[in-house]
Automatic annotation (TrEMBL):
Mg(2+) 2 binds at residues 276, 279, 315, 317. GO terms for biological process: D-xylose metabolic process. Its cofactor is Mg(2+). This is Xylose isomerase. The keyword Cell division does not apply. It is found in: Cytoplasm. Mg(2+) 1 binds at residues 239, 276, 304, 347. The gene is xylA. Binds 2 magnesium ions per subunit. Its EC number is 5.3.1.5. GO terms for molecular function: magnesium ion binding; xylose isomerase activity. It catalyses: alpha-D-xylose = alpha-D-xylulofuranose. Homotetramer.
């Protein structure tokens, strides 16, 4: 099969990205990501399920609050929305195949400009572009990891979509939601994501928070029921984020989402989380923490891979390159058995000043190598070091005797108090944090 799927080659200076190993000086080659290498019983391709994101990679042009973007992409040159969409899809699938990405993701308005379309006009546009996407998927073998709907950029959603205090606006958002879900099913999408970009509040002075959350729960139930009624068996993901653009978003972090699902009867068999690294840090958590909370609650669905700038307090969406951070995350990832339905999606963008077409490839190569290298290191830590043994040792007093009775629920508070009184002052046990950190560095 030819790498170039469309009539025009948008990246003529870059060929298929191959694995050449860590000693290669070729910037357009993988140093660590060998998709066929087996780690912990599965290939890297199976473990990581890499995905390219449509929005940053093909829609963004490096703009920021202080001015338009300096990046110029040939797929944006056509005058008509449909031709721009078709060109953009040609470029996207050329990129996906050259990178060897097995999956991609999109918002509905990434695929084709909404402009001032009515619901019917926008649905016709989505039908047009998804017909092309379906053919591209068949020709390339690239699959849709998940779809979603942009219910936050258009000014009509300034007060939210599923939480909007104005019912006609909520209903308009529901129409757009259905179009995106139909497109996801048409393209055999394996999952569907809800990112509540404006599902929150700016001030509580004008907000009935309980009503908005109840409405959002109804929204999620309706969406789930609709796709299930169509025979779709994929997984729904909620993507936690604490703020930005709202002051407070209702999906603040993974623990908040877990409590929300439980309160409103939304099963974790249906709903899991799509964890973004930069969103974790905005919530004052580590990426590792968010993965662990998700794994502990049967909610570890998918990952948006990126990183933030440690000197900035906003969502910078840089490509991941922090080995320590990613190794610690991969320890949780491996112990949880990987993701439930999702993959590692590069919700990351080249910097505003990176204006060469090839920079898009370099960012993804580095990100894929970071995750691949971290997967190898984490597996070695779990199988060759004393990491697991040392961690288990901290809890060994709960494995037998009275500690085991406590775990098994055999003690009353009175009995526990008697044991505590008999113990006297317990011995001091070191947490050995420095040793754990040294083990990580040793294997890196």
């Amino acid at each position: 099969m030819s790498i170039i799927l469309g009539d025009k080659e948008f990246f003529p200076t870059v060929g298929k990205i191959e694995f050449e190993g860590r000693d290669s000086d070729n910037p357009f080659a993988f140093k660590w990501y060998d998709e066929n290498r087996v780690v912990a019983g599965k290939t890297m391709k199976e473990w990581l399920r890499f995905s390219g994101c449509y929005w940053h990679t093909f829609c963004g042009q490096g703009h920021d609050p202080f001015g338009p973007g300096p990046q110029r992409f040939a797929w944006n040159d056509a005058n008509s929305a449909k031709q721009r969409a078709a060109d953009k899809m040609d470029a996207a699938f050329e990129f996906f195949t050259k990178m060897g990405l097995p999956y991609y993701c999109f918002h509905d308005t990434d695929l084709i400009d909404e402009e001032n379309s009515s619901v019917g006009e926008f649905e016709e546009k989505i039908q047009f572009i998804t017909d092309i996407a379906l053919e591209k998927q068949k020709a390339s073998g690239v699959k849709l990891l998940w779809g979603t709907s942009n219910l936050f950029s258009n000014p009509r959603y300034m007060n939210g979509a599923g939480t909007n205090p104005h019912f006609p606006t909520l209903a308009r958002a529901g129409a757009q939601l259905k179009i995106a879900m139909d497109a996801t099913m048409k393209l055999n999408g394996e999952n569907y994501v809800f990112w509540g970009g404006r599902e929150g509040y700016i001030t509580l002075l004008n907000t009935k928070m309980e009503r908005e959350q109840e409405n959002f729960a109804r929204w999620l139930h309706m969406a789930k029921d609709y796709m299930r009624s169509q025979g779709w068996n994929g997984t729904f993901f909620i993507e936690p984020k604490p703020m930005e653009p709202t002051k407070h978003q209702y999906d603040f972090d993974t623990a908040t989402v877990a409590g929300f699902l439980q309160k409103y009867g939304l099963s974790t068999d249906d709903f899991k989380v799509n964890i973004e690294v930069n969103h974790a840090t905005l919530a004052s958590h580590t990426f590792q923490h968010e993965l662990q909370v998700a794994a502990d609650n049967n909610m570890l669905g998918s990952i948006d891979a990126n990183r933030g700038d440690y000197q900035n307090s906003w969502d910078t969406d840089q490509f991941p390159n922090n080995i320590n951070e990613t190794v610690e995350a991969m320890l949780v990832y491996l112990e949880a058995g990987g993701l439930q339905g999702g993959g590692v999606n590069f919700d990351a963008k080249t910097r505003r000043e990176s204006t060469d077409m090839e920079d898009i490839f370099l960012g993804h190569i580095g990100g894929m190598d970071t995750f691949a290298r971290s997967l190898i290191i984490a597996d070695e830590i779990l199988t060759k070091s004393k990491y697991t043994e040392l961690r288990n040792k901290r809890y060994e007093t709960f494995e037998s005797g009275q500690g085991k009775d406590f775990v098994d629920g055999k003690l009353t508070l009175e009995q526990l108090a008697e044991i505590g009184a008999a113990v006297g002052e317990p011995e001091q046990i070191s947490g050995k944090q420095e040793l754990f950190e040294n083990i990580i560095n040793q294997y890196i």
